[in-house]
Write a structure and sequence with these properties.
The protein is built from no helices and 49 strands. The chain is mainly β and 498 residues long. Strands 13, 14, 15, 16, 17, 20, 21 and 24 form an eight-stranded antiparallel beta sheet that branches. A six-stranded antiparallel β-barrel has the order 25-28-29-32-33-36. A hairpin with a 4-residue loop joins β14 and β15.
């Protein structure tokens, strides 16, 4: 891809959330009952996720508050007890967060000077003498499908499977090779590529997860993280080609990456099966029979609103201009870059701010000139940078286990759902062993079907989707932990983060 001007976006609030793991391997948890706080959960769920609110950050420490998804704060009381509520004073609920060389954190109450600790079940704040019981391991709570952005080089990590290496040289994260799965296992992290290989200590991709693919994470507020081997080596870009490898002398700050949710890029095709592409001069046409980098668009959609923005790989947004033309020269805050979106059986219809619908002119130009939508206004949409889906719902990730024959939706570690595109918005779901997803008469799923079934995927946000199952019902997360397809309407349990 040619050089482009690409503005990196700051992480969203949900990308900065964390879980805190005690020395006993249990998670800091807010309990709905009497607003108590415990540390007896074995996995990272909604009650174990905290927003880290930073008021003063330095190199080795920061002043922070911890806020739960319920909107209440972690509070240390005068008697050493810890609860969950609203601060009564400006310093109530403030902690001095210190970063330790082993990747652990300690949280010291600003008012009392006592450290936050746990006995593996209860949480309290009694001691001023630092010990191993006061150490907490931070775990990023964002979705495991991530990008790694280097703020020093202003580029993204990219797996190169032809040579088995990872380079930090991608200007725009629009290809599947810029996406990685961040696995957490036994206190360490493993970085998996889009072809299911793993970054290893010897700078080459490994075919299997092992101790040689395990890294320790140094995590900082605002999404910064570094990976090291625990023996003095740190991952950072090296050499003229920015090879990602272990070393001991990074340029100041080169080892820090910003961890963010992998963005969604799509391709759009007209009724005539031509790709919509950006041409020189920022014109937008549907004339190409080949998918090129200029045919890719970042799908940016607020889940609270039916409006959509499409960001081209030239860094600009599609926008309606005079004479109803659509150009790729918009800026993110312009009202003309927002389009209302309608879904119709895996296709989308876009309506501009003027009320006109986008359609393809006889010469291939994309125009906002239709007063009512028809077949010429329907655009086929397909994932451009995702060969698989990793789904997370209200109760955890979608995955399978040897203990149950049904696919579950409350897993701590996900399965990858391989996507086999059929036609506009319709995919076959393939399990990791090569078999297909099958559906039972009860609306439950098994991962060992012999025949491919049709699943209709509709995007509901930048990284949110719904799935219409082969039985005609929406797929949803059930509180029991079993994945079901029995919902006629789209509810909160039908929304999946991917």
């Amino acid at each position: 891809m040619d050089e482009v001007e690409w503005m990196h976006r700051h992480p969203k609030a949900e990308d900065l959330r964390i879980g805190l793991i005690s020395w006993a391997g249990t998670y800091l948890t807010f309990e709905a009952y009497k607003n108590t706080v415990t540390a007896n959960a074995k996995s990272l769920g909604r009650r174990q996720i905290w927003d880290l609110l930073v008021s003063n950050e330095q190199e080795t420490q920061a002043v922070v508050r911890l806020k739960s998804l319920k909107g209440l704060y972690l509070l240390c009381e005068g008697d050493g007890s810890v609860c969950h509520g609203q601060p009564r004073t400006s310093h109530h609920g403030c902690f001095l967060l210190r970063f330790h060389r082993n990747g652990k954190w300690t949280l010291q109450c600003i008012i009392s000077g006592h450290y936050l600790e746990s006995n593996g079940e209860d949480v309290f704040c009694n001691s001023r003498v630092l010990s191993a019981y006061h150490m907490w391991t931070p775990r990023p709570a964002l979705h495991v499908h991530v990008t790694l952005y280097s703020p020093i080089y202003r580029t993204y990590a990219r797996a190169d499977h032809s040579v088995g290496r990872i380079w930090v040289d991608a200007a725009v994260p629009c290809v599947e090779e810029c996406g990685f799965l961040l696995h957490f296992q036994d206190g360490c992290y493993h970085l998996e590529t889009s072809t299911h290989h793993f970054l290893s200590h010897v700078d080459r991709l490994a075919s299997q997860l092992s101790s040689q693919t395990a890294f320790h994470m140094q995590l900082r507020p605002r999404g910064f993280m570094a990976l090291c081997d625990g023996e003095g080596g740190t991952l950072y870009p090296q050499g003229a080609h920015l090879l990602l490898g272990l070393g001991s002398s990074p340029m100041r700050g080169a080892e820090w990456f910003i961890l963010q949710h992998f963005p969604t890029w799509v391709s759009l095709r007209s009724k005539a099966r031509k790709f919509i592409s950006v041409l020189y001069g920022a014109e937008v046409c549907a004339t190409s029979e080949r998918l090129t980098p200029m045919s890719l668009f970042q799908f940016e959609c607020d889940s609270e609103s039916p409006t959509l923005q499409l960001r081209s790989s030239n860094g600009c947004y599609l926008a309606q201009r005079p004479n109803r033309t659509v150009m790729a020269d918009g800026h993110p805050m312009e009202s003309d870059t927002f389009f209302r979106v309608r879904w119709n059986c895996g296709k989308i219809i876009l309506q501009s701010a003027s009320g006109r619908f986008l359609s393809i002119a006889p010469n291939g130009l994309l125009l906002a000139n239709a007063t009512s939508p028809g077949p010429n206004e329907e655009l086929a949409i397909r994932f451009a940078n995702r060969p698989f889906l990793v789904l997370r719902g209200r109760y955890g990730y979608v995955g399978s286990t040897s203990e149950r024959d049904l696919i579950q939706c409350n897993m701590d570690q996900p399965d990858c759902i391989q996507l086999l595109p059929c036609h506009q918005g319709i995919y076959h779901f393939q399990a990791q062993g090569g078999s297909f997803w099958s559906i039972t008469s009860f609306g439950t799923f098994r991962p060992w079907g012999k025949f491919a079934l049709n699943f209709c995927v509709e995007l509901q946000g930048s990284n949110l989707l719904t799935v219409l199952a082969p039985n005609g019902f929406y797929m949803r997360a059930d509180r029991s932990g079993t994945l079901l397809a029995d919902s006629e309407d789209i509810t909160k349990e039908c929304i999946w983060e991917f």
